[in-house]
Amino acid sequence: xxxxxxxxxxxxxxxxxxxxxxxxxxxxxxxxxxxxxxxxxxxxxxxxxxxxxxxxxxxxxxxxxxxxxxxxxxxxxxxxxxxxxxxxxxxxxxxxxxxxxxxxxxxxxxxxxxxxxxxxxxxxxxxxxxxxxxxxxxxxxxxxxxxxxxxxxxxxxxxxxxxxxx
Length: 166
Fold this sequence. Notes:
Blueprint: H1 10-44, E1 51-59, E2 63-72, E3 75-78, H2 81-94, H3 99-117, E4 126-132, E5 138-146, H4 149-152, H5 161-165
Antiparallel strand pairs: 1-2, 1-5, 2-3, 4-5
Helix pairs in contact: 2-3
């Protein structure tokens, strides 16, 4: 909106944009720190909250994060898509060439791990893959894992949420 405002001098528009970018970066850093703290508390005090991450990806020629949310005690809260993108990047970098196979293989390993870690809570993990053939071949992948995966995969490292995401 600021860039489209032609009545403002170019230098004022540039300074305004820089200020907004800096502010957004600071806001994101605060959000990631609060998210990290919340996840650590939820992990340390097992009974406090049940926190899962649910991501939906669209796969055609590339992988795109369509939705990303935390599910806290059954209630969904949207979180920045960048978190889902960082998670998918981490998963795909450790897998082979086929993104669907990589996501599936990662999910199967994570499911085994978290079924053991969260004894008696076998419904924390889920995976759904939908293959679409019209108008072109694509996949929609929806998976849900305990939000602890963000720390385990070092998407949000234990020492600082800001360092991993900047």
